[in-house]
Design goal:
The protein is an alpha+beta fold and 273 residues long. The protein folds into three domains: 73 residues, Zf-an1 domain, CATH 4.10.1110; 66 residues; 123 residues, 2-Layer Sandwich (Beta Polymerase, domain 2). The strands form four sheets. Strands 5-8-9-10-11 form a five-stranded antiparallel sheet. It has a two-stranded antiparallel ribbon with strand order 1-2. The chain is rod-shaped. The N and C termini lie far apart (140 Å).
C-alpha cells in the first residue's frame, strides 16, 4: 500500500484516525499530511473522555507495546449514601414486621429445651433407680440354706477335697477355712469362719490331741492320734444344725460338737476314708 502524500510503498502503513487515509512513517502525524479533519484546537490537547488512554509509539524498526496512562476519576458519593439509607430502611421494616415471629421462635425453642431437660432428668432418675436396684441385687448374696442334718454335712465333706490341699506358708489355716466356706456357699449351704485364741484354743487343742482313732486290718490294729503346731490363733469353720453348734477342721474334715465348755467329736474326717 502506498502513502497518500509521497506515494511510497509502505509494508505497514499508518491510518489516520481523523481522515482515515494511509501514510508512511514520515507523514503519519496529522500535521505532517495536513489532515483536513484535524480539530481546530489541535490533536495534542484532545484528551479522551474515559479514564485511560492507550498511546502507541512506532518507528521504522519495531512496534512498541502500548502502555496505560491513568487519570484520577471523580467519584460521586451521593448514590452510595442513598443506597445505604435504602438498605437501613428495609432492615427496619423487616425487623418490625417479623419481630413477633422471632419472639415466638424463641419461646418455642425455650419450651422444647424445657421438655428435653425434663425428659433428661426422668431418664437420669430411672437410670439411677435401676442402677441402685442392680447394685442391691449384686450385693445381696444368694439365699443360703442351713445343712438339714449332720449326715448331710458329712456327705458334703466327703465330696469336697479342700482337706487334700497340703498346708504351706502361703496356704495356712485361714485359707483352708475360707476355701471350705466358699465351697459350701457354692453348694447353697451356710457356713462361716470361726477363730480361736488363747485359752479357748488351748482347751480345743488339748481335747483334740487326746483323741485316738483306731482301725483294724485283719489282726492288725492302727491307732491315729492328732496334734497341732504352735501358734497364737487358729481358724476353723462353724455351722449350726438343729440348734446345735459344730466346729469343722477344714484341714482334715473332723467335726466337733460344742458341749458347754467342752467338745465331742462326731466325725473323724479324712482318717476314715
Amino acid at each position: 500500500m502506498k502513502c497518500v502524500i509521497c506515494k511510497e510503498e509502505v509494508y505497514l502503513p499508518h491510518r489516520c484516525s481523523y481522515c482515515r487515509q494511509h501514510f508512511c512513517d514520515k507523514h503519519r502525524l496529522p500535521e505532517k499530511h495536513m489532515c483536513p479533519n484535524l480539530p481546530k484546537r489541535g490533536w495534542k490537547n484532545n484528551r479522551p473522555s474515559n479514564t485511560h488512554q492507550n498511546i502507541t509509539y512506532q518507528d521504522n524498526r519495531h512496534r512498541v507495546k502500548p502502555h496505560t496512562v491513568s487519570y484520577p476519576k471523580t467519584q460521586s458519593t451521593n448514590g452510595t449514601i442513598i443506597l445505604i439509607l435504602i438498605i437501613i430502611g428495609i432492615s427496619v421494616i423487616i425487623y418490625t414486621q417479623y419481630k413477633p415471629s422471632i419472639g415466638g421462635i424463641e419461646s418455642y425453642v425455650e419450651g422444647v429445651t424445657d421438655e428435653i431437660k425434663e425428659g433428661y432428668e426422668e431418664v437420669i432418675e430411672v437410670a439411677e433407680e435401676g442402677y441402685h436396684e442392680l447394685i442391691d441385687v449384686t450385693k445381696a448374696p444368694p439365699p443360703l440354706d442351713p445343712f438339714p442334718s449332720i449326715d448331710e454335712l458329712i456327705q458334703f465333706l466327703d465330696r469336697d477335697n479342700v482337706s487334700d490341699v497340703v498346708y504351706a506358708s502361703d496356704f495356712k489355716c485361714g485359707d483352708f477355712a475360707e476355701a471350705l466356706v466358699n465351697r459350701a456357699q457354692d453348694a447353697g449351704y451356710e457356713l462361716k469362719v470361726a477363730s480361736m485364741w488363747d485359752s479357748e484354743l488351748d482347751d480345743f487343742i488339748q481335747y483334740v490331741e487326746s483323741l485316738e482313732y483306731t482301725t483294724k486290718s485283719g489282726t492288725t490294729t492302727f491307732t491315729t492320734t492328732f496334734s497341732y503346731g504352735s501358734g497364737e490363733g487358729h481358724a476353723l469353720c462353724r455351722v449350726i444344725i438343729d440348734s446345735s453348734t459344730y466346729l469343722i477342721e477344714p484341714q482334715n474334715d473332723m467335726v466337733f460338737e460344742i458341749l458347754g465348755t467342752g467338745y465331742n467329736v462326731v466325725y473323724f474326717g479324712a482318717v476314715t476314708k
